[in-house]
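Private note to self, pasted from the team thread so I don't lose it. Backbone tokens:
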């Protein structure tokens, strides 16, 4: 931290001390926690153990009025603000040093209107909360691949999940949001009200305010679907990846798939004789009926001789949490990404080299199949503009030992450098560890976002995010 920033944060700490927050606490329904208070450490913690910050205050909000009061307090007292939904952003932007965390996690209520196929979820809900509420009606909102992730950060940055090719991104399925803007106003943004703001929150991240409620359009999914999860030896990687690419060329939109290159963990769920082996895995979900999905996904199970194959019909909610255990709280994480324009034989070879060079066996290098419904939304229709790329590279560095920080971070950076020649240049903000927005948007999007930032947050109160500078 720069000296200037240290001084400023000391000043802010005084304002967030016991006396400083007395006025705020009079109107606050939730909890205001300071260091030393019971529950502070847990409330201040985030998922990424490599990010170590200590806020001076955590405002655990119970309502939009609480959020509004916290925002007004921060603006008035020039207090640094971080906004926490599920706390799962790899950049660690849900916390800060010496400032205030506006913690939405108590606001995780989800209400479903099955007849209208809509769900309203609090700004602190996780995908597990949403799936738990919607699946009893055989409905789902397109979310992410890990159920403990917050809906807020994921949706505001776009949102890639198992339904992306059939129903689009999470942000494409927003009907409206309730949002507290930098002046503390509580407003609704939708296709009819505050349309500009609605455009901006669908891909522009947390730059424009604190979303207290997300209204999603729901779709019939499950409760049982066909899921493919098959691990092949890395030695057969070239054949498997070429076969997968051929499958993707003609796959229907019901199928969304991803390739993961990693190391088989020493866990009971995997046969002992393959523990420690390097694999190339295909995971794919077919969101139609199991009868349709079974034959459709079968070719993915026959690309080579598998190490193991967990494919079969499965409850949709189970698939939604299937990868949760691979991302425990407190591990060290650094992820990078690139939208790819092509995934030709040369790209496959570079990918396999990168997979073999991973410094940590917990890391993976992934390729997401894109297209389908997410590509049928025009690039200008939402702030999320990277719609045309057929694939996304994700280089996920996951490791335990802080001594290994540099090696793991460098590997993820190097992965993007070496894959850059296959890419459009843009990266996916939700997989970016650095708070730098420019690489995530093209010029036209950045310009419009900057204008809207000036309108809704000219003082850049909400700056701990992939930050758009007020234009
Ligand atoms: C294990 C894991 C799996 C993932 N899988 C996927 C995936 O399948 N698909 C995908 O697209 N992404 C995925 N991601 C990335 C994910 O989209 C981002 O990490 C996202 O930011 C997480 O949201 P969160 O609310 O938990 O984040 P937080 O860390 O709480 O917040 C991140 C940022 O979002 C903003 N924010 C949070 N809450 C609010 C709010 N209520 N109002 C306004 N702004 C807010 C703030 O700017 C904050 O800094 C995954 C991440 C992890 C850690």
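Design output:
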């Amino acid at each position: 931290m720069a000296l200037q920033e240290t001084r400023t944060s000391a000043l802010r700490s005084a304002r967030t001390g016991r006396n400083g927050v007395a006025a705020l606490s009079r109107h606050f329904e939730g909890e205001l926690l300071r260091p030393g208070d019971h529950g502070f450490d847990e409330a201040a913690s985030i998922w990424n153990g490599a990010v170590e910050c200590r806020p001076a205050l955590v405002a655990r909000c119970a309502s939009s009025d609480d959020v509004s009061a916290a925002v007004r307090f921060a603006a008035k007292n020039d207090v640094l603000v971080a906004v926490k939904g599920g706390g799962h952003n790899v950049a660690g932007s849900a916390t800060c040093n010496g400032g205030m965390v506006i913690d939405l996690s108590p606001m995780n209520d989800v209400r479903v209107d099955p007849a209208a196929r809509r769900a309203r979820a609090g700004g602190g809900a996780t995908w597990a909360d949403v799936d738990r509420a919607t699946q009893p009606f055989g409905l789902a909102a397109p979310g992410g691949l890990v159920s403990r992730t917050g809906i807020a950060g994921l949706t505001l940055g776009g949102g890639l999940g198992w339904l992306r090719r059939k129903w689009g991104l999470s942000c494409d399925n927003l009907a409206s949001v309730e949002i507290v803007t930098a002046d503390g106003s509580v407003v609704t943004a939708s296709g009819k009200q505050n349309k500009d703001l609605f455009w901006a929150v669908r891909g522009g991240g947390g730059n424009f305010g604190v979303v207290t409620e997300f209204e999603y359009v729901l779709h019939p999914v499950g409760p049982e679907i066909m899921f493919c999860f098959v691990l092949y030896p890395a030695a057969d990687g070239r054949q498997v990846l070429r076969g997968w690419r051929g499958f993707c060329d003609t796959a229907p939109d019901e199928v969304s798939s991803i390739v993961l290159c990693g190391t088989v963990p020493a866990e009971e769920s995997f046969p002992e004789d393959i523990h420690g082996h390097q694999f190339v895995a295909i995971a794919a979900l077919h969101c139609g009926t199991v009868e349709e999905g079974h034959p459709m996904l079968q070719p993915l199970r026959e690309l080579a001789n598998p190490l193991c194959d967990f494919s079969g019909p499965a409850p949709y909610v189970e698939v939604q949490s299937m990868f949760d255990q691979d991302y425990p709280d407190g591990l060290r994480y650094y992820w990078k990404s690139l939208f790819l324009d092509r995934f030709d034989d040369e790209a496959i070879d570079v990918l396999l080299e990168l997979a073999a060079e991973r410094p940590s066996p917990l890391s993976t290098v992934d390729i997401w199949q894109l297209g389908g419904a997410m590509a049928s939304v025009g690039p200008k229709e939402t702030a999320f503009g990277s719609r045309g790329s057929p694939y996304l590279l994700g280089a996920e560095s996951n490791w335990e030992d802080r001594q290994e920080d540099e090696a793991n971070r460098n590997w993820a950076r190097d992965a993007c450098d070496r894959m850059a020649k296959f890419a459009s240049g843009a990266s996916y903000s939700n997989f970016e560890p650095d708070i730098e927005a420019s690489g995530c948007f093209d010029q036209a999007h950045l310009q419009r976002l900057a204008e809207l930032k000036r309108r809704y947050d000219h003082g850049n109160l909400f700056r701990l995010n992939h930050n758009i500078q007020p234009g």
